[in-house]
């Protein structure tokens, strides 16, 4: 990262990149640099890069404080304790300043190179959900994800093939349709569609993890996701979206 303050950020940036992170100290500087490189080519967009530190116990806070001191496009929020990916994403969404919100996981497995295509699609759609064409994960993560996606689609018929993909883009107005609960990030498209926003899928890249360890396994990915499915199926039937006559 440059030692000079980045002047690309505006008082109200057009794009907010929201990145939840938990014990990703080694990945954060590299990820921030890649986001900066992408927006150096997308010079028609002002942006902010909003990291949400989900109660990390490594040097994540120190890395974020260093980034903020050298790059004015970087903002950091620190949750008071570890609350999970959904909580971190919700905190980021509610504090994002941009009209467009782009999300990535903090482990460098998602690629900011997908941002130009997502922003292009957001000219015509309210929400873009990425799907990983090639998964670079352990067999446990691939199998559990495959089962969860198949069961979820069989019950909710949401048409989303990869609900766990961290690469997403959406207009900020979609945030009001998101019900905050632990596990929300796996049902994002269902909640957005329920509010009658338009949703499209987009193929995105996926890379092997270079640093740190995965925070997900069978217990907190497959079984919890199937349990949440029951609640979301109920919520979808009870959801109300009152519209005022213009």
The CATH class = Alpha Beta
Please name the CATH architecture. Alpha-Beta Complex
Q: What is the structural class?
A: alpha/beta
Biggest sheet strand order reads 3-2-1-4-6-5-7
Question: What is the H level of CATH, i.e. the homologous superfamily?
Answer: Spore Coat Polysaccharide Biosynthesis Protein SpsA, Chain A
Please summarize the sheet with the most strands.
Answer: 7 strands, mixed
| Percent strand | 15-25%
Element-level helix/strand string:
EHEHEHEHEHEHEH
How many domains, as an integer?
Answer: 1
Coarse shape: globular
Number of helices: 7
Mean pLDDT: 84
Number of strands: 7
Q: Between the first and last Cα atoms, what is the distance in angstroms? A: 48 Å
Structural Rg: 17 Å
Folded structure, characterized:
With 246 residues, the protein is an alpha/beta fold. The protein has a single domain, classed as Spore Coat Polysaccharide Biosynthesis Protein SpsA, Chain A. 36% of the residues lie in helices and 16% in strands. It is built from seven helices and seven strands, in the order βαβαβαβαβαβαβα. The protein has helices at 28-41, 60-70, 85-95, 115-121, 139-156, 188-194, 218-238, and strands at 15-21, 47-53, 74-78, 100-103, 127-132, 168-171, 199-204. A seven-stranded mixed β-sheet has the order 3-2-1-4-6-5-7, sandwiched between helices. Helix 5 runs parallel beside helix 7 (218-238). The protein is globular and about 50 Å long. The model is unreliable at 1-5 (pLDDT under 50).
């Amino acid at each position: 990262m440059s030692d000079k303050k980045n002047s690309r950020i505006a008082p109200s940036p057009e794009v907010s990149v929201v990145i939840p992170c938990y014990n990703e100290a080694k990945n954060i500087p590299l990820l921030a640099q890649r986001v900066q490189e992408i927006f150096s080519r997308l010079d028609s967009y002002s942006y902010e890069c909003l990291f949400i530190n989900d109660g990390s116990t490594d040097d994540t806070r120190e890395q974020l404080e260093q980034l903020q001191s050298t790059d004015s496009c970087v903002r950091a929020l620190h949750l008071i304790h570890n609350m999970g990916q959904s909580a971190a994403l919700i905190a980021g969404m509610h504090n994002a300043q941009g009209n467009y919100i782009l999300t990535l996981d903090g482990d460098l497995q998602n690629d900011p190179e997908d941002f130009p295509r997502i922003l292009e699609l957001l000219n015509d759609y309210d929400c873009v959900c990425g799907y990983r064409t090639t998964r670079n994960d352990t067999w446990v993560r691939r199998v559990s994800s495959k089962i969860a996606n198949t069961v979820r689609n069989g019950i909710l018929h949401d048409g989303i093939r990869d609900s766990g993909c961290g690469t997403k883009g959406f207009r900020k107005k979609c945030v009001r349709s998101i019900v905050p609960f632990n596990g929300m990030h796996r049902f994002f498209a269902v909640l957005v569609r329920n509010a009658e926003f338009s949703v499209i899928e987009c193929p995105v890249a996926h890379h092997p993890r270079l640093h740190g360890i995965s925070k997900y396994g069978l217990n907190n990915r497959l079984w919890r996701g199937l349990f949440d499915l029951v609640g979301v199926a109920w919520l979808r039937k009870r959801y109300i979206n009152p519209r005022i006559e213009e």
